[in-house]
Write a structure and sequence with these properties.
It is a single chain. The protein has three helices and six strands. The chain is an alpha+beta fold. The protein has a domain of 87 residues: Nuclear Transport Factor 2, Chain: A (Roll). A six-stranded mixed beta sheet has the order 1-6-5-4-3-2, covered by helices on one side. It is globular, with a radius of gyration of 22 Å. It comes from Streptomyces dioscori.
């Protein structure tokens, strides 16, 4: 009877050890960071994004990725205000002289107006995304 339970015991032990190993490999440190942000994402963030929540370009909504492609090619942009100076009046982004930041609309399906989503770019290559009309920003990792 004891010999029959040994393989089951070893199999169970192996399953538990595998689960622990996999859990350790996929854990993230979320203290002081956005939920789900990995150490790799923080480590690869440029200096201008230091201390900010980040989002990888591939994780942005499809509409935001299309807006980034338009920015990269210089347009044409669907909204007249795209490319206008972003004043940073909310002070959510690092302070710079007026004209440093430009804003672009990220289309929101179902919205009749410009909606709340924007991409804001900085003169030095910074890219930020907001989906709550400037209340918060995430640095875009490209």
């Amino acid at each position: 009877m004891l010999l029959r339970s040994v393989p089951r015991l070893l199999s169970g032990l192996l399953a538990c050890l595998t689960a622990l190993l996999l859990a350790g490999c996929s854990s993230t440190d979320t203290a002081g960071s956005a939920a789900g942000e990995t150490d790799t994402a923080r480590a690869s963030a440029p200096a201008w994004a230091d201390g900010m929540d980040t989002v990888r370009k591939a994780e942005l909504p499809a509409e935001a990725r299309r807006t980034l492609a338009l920015i990269d090619t210089g347009g044409p942009f669907p909204y007249a205000k795209d490319g206008s100076v972003f004043g940073n009046f909310e002070r959510e982004l690092p302070r710079h002289e007026r004209g440093h930041y430009r804003e672009y609309t990220v289309r929101t399906p179902g919205e009749r107006d410009r909606g709340a989503r924007r991409i804001v770019t900085g003169r030095d290559g910074e890219v930020y995304y907001t989906d709550d009309h400037y209340n918060s920003f995430r640095a875009v990792l490209r």
